[in-house]
Specification:
The chain is an alpha+beta fold. Among the domains are: 22-114, Immunoglobulin-like, CATH 2.60.40.10; 123-203, Sandwich (Immunoglobulin-like). The protein is 18% helix and 34% strand. The protein has helices spanning 2-27, 256-280; strands at 32-40, 43-44, 49-54, 57-63, 69-74, 86-91, 94-101, 107-109, 112-114, 123-127, 130-131, 134-140, 147-152, 155-156, 163-164, 171-176, 183-191, 196-203. It is rod-shaped and about 185 Å long.
């Protein structure tokens, strides 16, 4: 009997000693560790802040490394104070789209994406806004460097597989509506960081529609065949007078002997002629 009492007393003492330890273990705050990458407008944030928020109160913060990784340890203020509550996050001053549910002693991988406040809300315009189904889609206010998807009533409409937003938040791409029935359709542009804008396009019915946008310049055609020879041209105007010819060479000097002979013959001819005249005249009778 004495041994039994001693045993019971020992068990009771051990129980009393363990109760505070169990109560302390149950009451101790339990952490929730969350880690991943942080991006703003599709770009990893280097040496930026990541903050965990519960019930509007900042409860933990961390700084990203040079490649955008972060690790947050969220501790309860008291045991069970955050269990099951939603944890929201800020990357810098931008609110991330992801959330987490607090769980004691949990470890969660969560990549955060946030949007910086744009200078203007995202918007899209169509050129033309109606026609046979082909139109140029131009956007402003989208996330620089992010990919844009073009849809018509939820169906893919973009001709390009990937449309990348320029550094100033703009893009332009050709879209062809997949629908064929006439009517108005909602064209939506959505980028990879969640910015979106819509506008309406009116699809014409059967028959001639409005003129679509000009297509790209075609390749240069091959050279044509050689044409037939044209008619002869009119005679040309007379040419200018030619330049004077060169002076000819001087003739040879005549022979002096021939001149003397010719003179003698001429004198003899004159004498004979005069003699003939005298002889023909008869003397008168007395």
């Amino acid at each position: 009997m004495t041994k039994l009492r001693i045993l019971l007393a020992g068990v009771l003492a051990l129980s009393l000693a363990l109760v505070p330890a169990v109560m302390f273990a149950q009451a101790a705050p339990a952490p929730h560790r969350i880690y991943g990458t942080a991006q703003i407008d599709g770009q990893l944030v280097s040496a930026g802040s990541v903050t965990a928020v519960i019930d509007g109160q900042d409860i933990a913060s961390a700084t990203t490394d040079t490649i955008g990784n972060y690790v947050l340890t969220v501790n309860e203020t008291t045991a069970g104070a955050y269990t099951g509550k939603t944890v929201t996050f800020r990357v810098g001053t931008a609110v991330a789209t992801q959330t987490a549910a607090f769980a004691q002693f949990d470890v969660t991988a969560l990549n955060l994406t946030a949007l910086s406040a744009p200078a203007a809300p995202a918007a899209v315009t169509l050129t033309p806004a109606s026609g046979a189904g082909a139109t140029w889609v131009s956007g402003t206010g989208f996330g620089p460097g992010s990919a844009v998807t073009i849809t018509s009533q939820g169906l893919a409409a973009g001709v390009a597989t990937v449309v990348t937003v320029a550094g100033d938040g703009t893009f332009k791409t050709l879209a062809i509506l997949p629908q064929s029935a006439a009517g108005k359709y909602t064209i939506r542009a959505t980028d990879a960081v969640g910015r979106s804008a819509t506008t309406a396009y009116e699809l014409a019915g059967a028959g001639a529609g409005t003129k679509g946008p000009a297509g790209p310049t075609g390749l240069q055609g091959s050279a044509g065949a050689t044409g037939t020879q044209g008619p002869a041209g009119a005679p040309g105007a007379p040419g200018a007078p030619g330049a004077p010819g060169l002076v000819g060479p001087q003739g040879a000097e005549g022979s002096s002997a021939l001149g003397v002979v010719a003179l003698i013959i001429a004198i003899m001819a004159a004498v004979f002629a005069l003699g003939g005249v005298v002889m023909c005249r008869k003397p008168k009778k007395a």
